Amino acid sequence: MPVAPVVKLHVETSGAVLSNCPPPLGCAALCGEFVAARYLLNHGADPNKIDGTGFAPLHCAAKNGHECVLRLLLSRGASVDIDGAHGTPLHTASYYGNAGALKILLDHHADPNRVSEISCAPLLMALSSTKHGVSESDSLNCVKLLVKAGADMNSANPCTPLVVAATYGLADCIKYLLEAGANPNIPDEQCGTTPIEIVADSGRRELVEILFPYTKPIQCVPIWSIDGIITHVKSKHLKDKDKVGQDKKAELKSLGAKAVEEKDYAGASKFYSEAIKVDPEDATLYSNRSFCHLRIGEARNALVDANACIRLQPDWPKGYWRKGAALTALKDHKEACDTYMAAMKLDPTSQEIHEAFWDAVAAMRAELDAGESGSSSESD
């Protein structure tokens, strides 16, 4: 069958196309089929029809950079700022790094500052395109076109272009934006960090050097220099990381304590194990897990944790108490007595330790008596 009848068939049956597929004109635009697109338009295809995926034909052409089809659609009444599921065609061209398509749209007065509930400004789309494989040079070409067309370089919606460029480590884009007049002192609205702090945190000294001459001194940075900024950010990063870790540990410790109250010792042991991964130097966690191990009959594991507790905090009597309990469960009563003695030296007033010591002494005597009784019966 010749091409023209096939295309005609598609025009006539466009209503039967699946809702999640582009209509015939959208397919032609997506594939760069200029002749087919022209034929469809000549036979009444709607250049502003939004398909089931939220794209109009203009979005489809912009996505793959089909410039001839793009010009054709615009000449036949396609709306340059038509909103789709992912913004306007300018957003699409920016997202895919298609500078040629982007220039055509801008030449037809596409709005370089258009935003919607689901899309940020085209300038941010062009910068973030590098995260899905677009080269920085292609991204930069789009950035330059948008800036020359009047894109707002200092709009924080949700963050500024410099914040995005700093986040993705785009050196050439950072240089261009600074030279074009972008303000490097506007912080990220979510985290409150400026572009220079973002690049310092990522360890990119060369980017710190680019931003430094344009950035005003930050009050919380004690020494305003390139090295001073890097040192400050590293220190802050460690403090923030430590706080997050401490919060996580506290949460796990609380869950463990609750499980102990409910006598779910196996569950509590798991919570304490997770907390130990966060802070392997906390003696209390080993003490608590030792107690849980003992309650579920894992005396050897209880002893291992008790020894870890003593190693980390040798002047804390509870570690020795836990060790004594584990040794008692393992029937090593003499060693248990010695361990409780060490605990009593650290806390002579503890009634619990005293009672545990005398229980261990009684168990040791009973064991000795049983041994002597067995020897006597054998000699008889």
Essential attributes:
Serine Threonine Protein Phosphatase 5, Tetratricopeptide repeat; mainly alpha; elongated; Ankyrin_rpt; single chain; TPR_rpt; ANK repeat; Cul2-RING_E3_ligase_SR; 20 helices; 64% helix
Number of strands: 0
Number of helical segments with 4 or more residues: 20
Terminus-to-terminus distance: 113 Å
CATH superfamily of the domain at 239-366: Tetratricopeptide repeat domain
Shape: elongated
Report helical residue fraction: 55-70%
The CATH topology of the domain at 239-366 is Serine Threonine Protein Phosphatase 5, Tetratricopeptide repeat
- Which architecture of the domain at 239-366 would the CATH scheme give at its second level? Alpha Horseshoe
The oligomeric state is single chain
Order of helices and strands: HHHHHHHHHHHHHHHHHHHH
Our Rg estimate from Cα atoms comes to 36 Å
User: Which structural class should the secondary elements be placed in?
Assistant: mainly alpha
What ranges have pLDDT less than 50 throughout 5 or more consecutive residues? 1-18, 376-380
Mean pLDDT: 88
Q: What is the CATH first-level class name of the domain at 239-366? A: Mainly Alpha
Strand content: under 5%
| Main sheet specs | none
ANK repeats: 53-85, 85-117, 157-189
TPR repeats: 249-282, 317-350
Keywords: ANK repeat, TPR repeat
Pfam families: Ank_2 (PF12796), TPR_8 (PF13181)
